[in-house]
Task: structure prediction
Amino acid sequence: MAGLAETRRQERDRARIVTPILTLKEALASPWLTVRVQIALGLFFVVAALPKLVDPPSFAHMIYNYRIVPGTFVNVLALVMPWFELLAGLALILGIWTRTSAALVGALLLVFIVAISLNLARTNAIDCGCFDVSAANKTAQERLADMRLVVLRDVGMLFMVAQILWAKGRTAAGAPAAS
Result:
């Protein structure tokens, strides 16, 4: 009887499929995850850049409303920034210059977070101009609430940038990434 039970246990153990458990570091460095994060972040920035490229005067007005940039640089910034967003987004989607484009996106996000937070602190209710450059008919309180959500969204995207940079840094340094 003991021999029969032992044989059944061995058969059950052989039949059991053992799946490897990934550590958090391995999961975050996974090429599967990194590619999807790159594409999602790239799409965010491409979609955000398009209305700004189509209507630079409206975007310049949005930049002016932040009351941070000197007036002489507003138009130049309105013409240049959307191209940075578009090119960095396309690079992330296509998987070229990923570390450079992720770093550029991260720098842009930091600037956006600081600019919006500064205006929140001043209670300057603005439309961020992130995805739509047309002025919305919202109250000041609604705009301030939207600005808080935009900061949270941008912090979330900053975590996406951190994942890309960390995963690419691990694979560039020779650390094996989980496949």
